[in-house]
């Protein structure tokens, strides 16, 4: 990979040297610990910097990719060309009345904890979701019967042209693990959640219970992308995989979790190729045994490694 000095200079003019990394290994920034290098890995600190970086990418006709905290994502071994932007530094969370306003880079877990501190109920379901707020909107994240669309009232986004828009939640077409954010090319800057006033102890009890259920049932001791597959109508993905005798199945360093069959873990320095090959193997086996198509919930991006 060659360094584009012109592009680097432009990027550090917009933000700073500390916010621009060249040929950065993306496995350092994903939950799965998978992924090759990004030509430019940029972490802007203001909305204006985000706008300027998008406009620069447009002017220079350079590819542009958003990366949340990489919890529901597999980046291929060849990495990602162009600019990869992470909004981890836009992580402010503030409460106003019965609303919580959270920056895109804030963790949704931390947002639920702020709601607890403010005695606001409605975000308890998110207390175990590892993603960022932006990522949670991107895929309408949910767990334990709750989802983002239940509590989201509005969002501030940047569009493909670099314009800032404030949109009501209804305009995001939030549905089961989907939204129109990728199709529209929006980049989420912040989200406003409207909650109900409640009792601190009651909210904490629910969150403690959900946290305990997550910790006892999910393989948190290894890197993973969380639930790999969407729930097929009338079935549970984990049960289908378990009934296909696939728990413990391993390709390279990737393994179908022995703790929860719906998870694939990076047990031993897996490559992205091994991890993806195991996903395909699971899909083919379940299809062959039960004639059910398992649809991926996890997103796969980037380029294959050229040998």
Which percent range describes the beta-strand content?
Answer: 25-35%
Provide the domain count.
3
Mind telling me the C-alpha Rg? 20 Å
Q: Sketch the topology as an H/E string, one letter per element.
A: HEEHEEEEEHEHEEEEHEEHEHEEEHE
Q: What is the 3D form?
A: globular
Give the N-terminus to C-terminus distance in angstroms: 14 Å
Tally the beta strands.
Answer: 19
Strands of the biggest beta sheet: in what spatial order? 6-7-13-11-12
Q: What is the CATH topology descriptor of the largest domain?
A: Uridine Diphospho-n-acetylenolpyruvylglucosamine Reductase, domain 3
What is the share of helical residues?
25-40%
The parts where pLDDT drops under 50 for at least 5 residues are: none
The computed structural class is alpha+beta
Major beta sheet summary: 5 strands, antiparallel
Tell me, what is the CATH class of the largest domain? Alpha Beta
Provide a quick synopsis of the model.
With 307 residues, the chain is of the alpha+beta class. Helices cover 29% and strands 26% of the residues.
Question: Can you characterise this structure?
Answer:
Helices cover 29% and strands 26% of the residues. The model has no long low-confidence stretch (mean pLDDT 94). The protein starts with a helix and ends in a 6-residue tail after the last strand. It is built from eight helices and 19 strands. The strands form six sheets. Strands 6-7-13-11-12 form a five-stranded antiparallel β-sheet. Strands 1-2-5-3 form a four-stranded mixed β-sheet. It is of the alpha+beta class and 307 residues long. Helix 1 packs antiparallel against helix 2 (47-60). The chain folds into three domains: 7-86, Uridine Diphospho-n-acetylenolpyruvylglucosamine Reductase, domain 2 (2-Layer Sandwich), CATH 3.30.43; 93-203, Uridine Diphospho-n-acetylenolpyruvylglucosamine Reductase, domain 3 (2-Layer Sandwich); 219-301, UDP-N-acetylenolpyruvoylglucosamine reductase, C-terminal domain (Uridine Diphospho-n-acetylenolpyruvylglucosamine Reductase, domain 1), CATH 3.90.78.
């Amino acid at each position: 990979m060659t360094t584009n000095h012109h592009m680097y200079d432009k990027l550090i003019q917009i933000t700073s040297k500390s916010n621009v990394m060249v040929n950065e290994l993306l496995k350092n920034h994903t939950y799965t610990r998978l992924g090759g290098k990004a030509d430019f890995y940029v972490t802007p600190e203001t909305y204006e910097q985000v706008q300027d970086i998008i406009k620069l990418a447009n002017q220079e006709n350079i590819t542009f990719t958003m990366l949340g905290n990489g919890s529901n994502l597999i980046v291929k071994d060849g990495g990602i060309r162009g600019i990869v932007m992470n909004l981890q530094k836009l992580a402010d969370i503030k409460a106003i009345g019965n609303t919580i306003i959270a920056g895109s880079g804030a963790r949704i877990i931390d947002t639920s904890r702020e709601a607890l501190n403010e005695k606001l109920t409605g975000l308890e379901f998110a207390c175990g979701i590892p993603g960022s707020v932006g990522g949670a909107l991107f895929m309408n994240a949910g767990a334990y019967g709750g989802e983002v669309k239940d509590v989201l009232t509005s969002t501030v986004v940047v569009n493909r042209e670099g314009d800032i828009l404030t949109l009501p939640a209804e305009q995001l077409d939030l549905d089961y693990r989907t939204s129109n954010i990728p199709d529209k090319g929006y980049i989420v800057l912040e989200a406003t959640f409207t909650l109900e006033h409640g009792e601190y102890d009651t909210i904490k009890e629910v969150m403690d219970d959900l946290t305990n259920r997550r910790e006892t049932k999910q393989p948190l001791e290894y890197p993973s992308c969380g639930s790999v597959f969407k729930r097929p109508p009338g079935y549970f993905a984990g049960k289908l995989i378990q009934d296909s005798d696939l728990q413990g199945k391993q390709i390279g360093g990737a393994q179908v979790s022995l703790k929860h069959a719906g998870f694939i873990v990076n047990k031993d320095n897996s490559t992205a190729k091994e991890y993806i090959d195991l996903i395909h193997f699971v899909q083919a086996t379940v299809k062959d045994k039960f004639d059910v198509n398992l649809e991926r919930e996890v997103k796969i991006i980037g380029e294959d490694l050229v040998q």
